[in-house]
């Protein structure tokens, strides 16, 4: 840029002022003390930021967008935590709950669905379930960075509940699999947007709530366990090809769960009434709408906000790399524009050495936790039984222990939210603690020989593993740039769910051999997650997310 431009900065009294300069690079170097002679990697490793407290080094190099997000962060911090943020914490958090409810419900009913419709054999519906999660993460996750967070956030739970009701009413295995797949596609896409939406409205002082919000994951697991405990033991058959009249429990579980999800969807549509996030709006060149979204919150809760539209516009025009609806006038042109924008967003996740390092380590972490956690629990009870243990195989004990364990797991993310505030912990330290303690508990789980010990170790496992999971869930969108945040989360979820989908395969073939090797390998992999966390380059505890 060679023409003179206006730039927003602050004076010594912390007031916004306007400056003129002949180039954006000149302003960047002088105002923010950037040494252009040093390498990007060196400055990034030192944690330097051209915009004060913002984690701008994860961005793709669009300095105009960085400045606009810096102003929006200042405005959100000035407004502070409001009732809107609390509502969003609960309503977006319930998206975590729905994701875990879907996993628990389909797992709890699959045996009884098989008995009625299929008679046993390989768990095909489980693989279809993972396929739905993968496709949903791609469609809703990538779409949230292209057409916006609002549509994905508002539609995912509604679609999931509708298809969930249809799943409960099916009379053939094929139709059950199809409607469960569609319900899961919607639920799987929901998780890719929940924490991004919450984070993009959250004042930096309260960023620890990104981690604590994962407590809703345990809430969902507890709800699903209670649903299963209430309906399945007394409303299920025990023999293959039993009639539906004797096997209503799995249907009641689907209907009840779908009703709860529908309630959450209606809250999103008619109570929260979410507007598009300001950070997404400025990343797509819509400064006026971004300003209006911020001022709507400020005016609604009578909070001061010094931001002006002129300040946003004075930063300049962002790079035109976003989805342009004017170019999508037909099916062919729409596909081309979607593909172009998706490639741009993917490239942002690999835009520099340090960002590549961060993206790869996070993706590997998601992949490892996905397969290790799933395989461990599939093999655990085989191992215990082969070593003379009896954890109690009655439905009552199974669902009782599951409910206790999942309820205790709620408090893991709450502890994680507190730990990240400690100077010596932060995000990475909390993940290291969660993975190592989780590994120790999982290895200890192999000593279980009765139902009481199973309940105790199950509760401890969920508690400590959820510390790691909660921090990873929060850390992932925090270190991805605004333009590609949902895309990055979606890729990580896809890695997690592809690896998780191998669990039924390993279980199916490994069950016959009775080998204990998968138990120890999976526990060790969970411990290795601490190494990945140690080498992650960014510590968002010290910076504001962009």
Describe this structure in words.
The chain folds into 2 domains: 5-79 and 285-321, no CATH class; 83-275 and 352-542, MFS general substrate transporter like domains (Growth Hormone, Chain: A), CATH 1.20.1250.20. The protein has 546 residues and is mainly α. A two-stranded antiparallel sheet has the order 1-2. The longest helix is centred in the N-terminal third of the chain and has 36 residues, at 83-118. The protein has 22 helices and 2 strands. 53% of the residues are buried. The model is unreliable at 1-50 (pLDDT under 50). Helix content is 69%, strand content 2%. The protein has helices spanning 24-31, 40-45, 63-79, 83-118, 124-146, 149-168, 173-199, 209-212, 215-231, 249-272, 278-283, 287-300, 309-314, 331-348, 353-386, 395-409, 411-419, 426-445, 451-478, 485-500, 503-513, 517-535, and strands spanning 5-10, 16-21. Keywords: Membrane, Transmembrane, Transmembrane helix, Transport. This is Major facilitator superfamily (MFS) profile domain-containing protein.
The SS-based structural class is mainly alpha
The whole-number mean of residue pLDDT values reads 82
Task: Indicate the CATH architecture of the largest domain.
Answer: Up-down Bundle
Q: Class of the largest domain in CATH?
A: Mainly Alpha
Order of helices and strands: EEHHHHHHHHHHHHHHHHHHHHHH
Which strand-content bin applies to the residues?
Answer: under 5%
Distance between the termini: 24 Å
Summarize the structure.
Helix content is 69%, strand content 2%.
């Amino acid at each position: 840029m060679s023409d003179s431009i206006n730039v927003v900065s602050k004076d010594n009294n912390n007031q916004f002022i306007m400056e003129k300069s002949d180039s954006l690079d000149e302003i960047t170097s002088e105002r923010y003390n950037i040494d252009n002679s040093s390498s990007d990697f060196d400055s990034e490793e030192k944690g330097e930021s051209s915009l004060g407290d913002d984690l701008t080094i994860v961005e793709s190099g669009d300095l105009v967008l960085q400045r606009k997000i810096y102003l929006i962060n200042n405005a959100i911090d000035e407004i502070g935590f409001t009732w809107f943020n609390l509502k969003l914490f609960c309503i977006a958090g319930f998206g975590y709950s729905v994701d875990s409810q879907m996993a628990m419900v389909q797992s709890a009913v699959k045996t009884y669905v098989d008995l009625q419709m299929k008679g046993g054999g390989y768990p095909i519906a489980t693989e279809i379930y993972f396929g739905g999660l993968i496709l949903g993460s791609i469609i809703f996750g990538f779409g949230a960075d292209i057409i916006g967070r609002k549509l994905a956030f508002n539609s995912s739970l509604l679609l999931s509940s509708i298809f969930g009701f249809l799943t409960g009413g099916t009379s053939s295995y094929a139709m059950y699999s199809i409607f469960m797949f569609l319900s899961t596609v919607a639920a799987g896409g929901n998780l890719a947007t929940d924490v991004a939406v919450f984070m993009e409205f959250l004042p930096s002082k309260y960023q620890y709530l990104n981690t604590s919000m994962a407590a809703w994951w345990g809430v969902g697991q507890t709800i699903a366990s209670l649903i299963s405990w209430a309906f399945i033991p007394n409303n299920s058959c025990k023999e293959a090809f039993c009639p539906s009249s004797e096997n209503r429990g799995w249907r009641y579980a689907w209907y009840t769960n779908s009703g709860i999800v529908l309630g959450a969807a209606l809250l999103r549509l008619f109570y929260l009434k979410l507007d598009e996030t300001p950070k997404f709006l400025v990343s797509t060149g819509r400064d006026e709408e971004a300003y209006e979204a911020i001022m709507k919150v400020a005016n609604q809760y009578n909070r001061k906000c010094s931001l002006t539209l002129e300040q946003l516009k004075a930063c300049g025009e962002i790079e035109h790399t976003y989805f342009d609806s004017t170019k999508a006038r037909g099916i062919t042109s729409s596909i081309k524009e979607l593909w172009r924008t998706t490639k741009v967003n993917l490239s942002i996740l690999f835009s520099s050495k340090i960002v590549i390092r961060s993206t790869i380590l996070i993706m590997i972490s998601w992949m490892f936790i996905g397969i290790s956690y799933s395989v461990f629990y599939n093999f655990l009870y085989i191992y215990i039984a082969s070593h003379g243990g009896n954890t109690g195989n009655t439905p009552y004990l199974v669902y009782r222990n599951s409910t206790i364990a999942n309820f205790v797991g709620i408090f893991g993310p709450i502890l994680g939210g507190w730990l990240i505030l400690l100077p010596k912990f932060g995000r990475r330290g909390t993940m290291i603690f969660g993975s190592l303690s989780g590994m120790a508990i999982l290895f200890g789980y192999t000593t279980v020989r009765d139902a009481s010990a199973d309940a105790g170790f199950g509760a401890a496992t969920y508690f400590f593993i959820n510390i790691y999971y909660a921090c990873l869930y929060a850390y992932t969108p925090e270190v991805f740039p605004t333009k590609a945040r949902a895309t990055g989360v979606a890729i990580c979820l896809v890695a997690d769910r592809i690896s998780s989908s191998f669990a039924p395969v390993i279980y199916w073939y490994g069950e016959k051999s009775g080998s204990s090797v998968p138990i120890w390998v999976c526990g060790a992999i969970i411990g290795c997650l601490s190494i990945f966390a140690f080498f992650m380059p960014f510590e968002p505890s010290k910076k504001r997310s962009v």
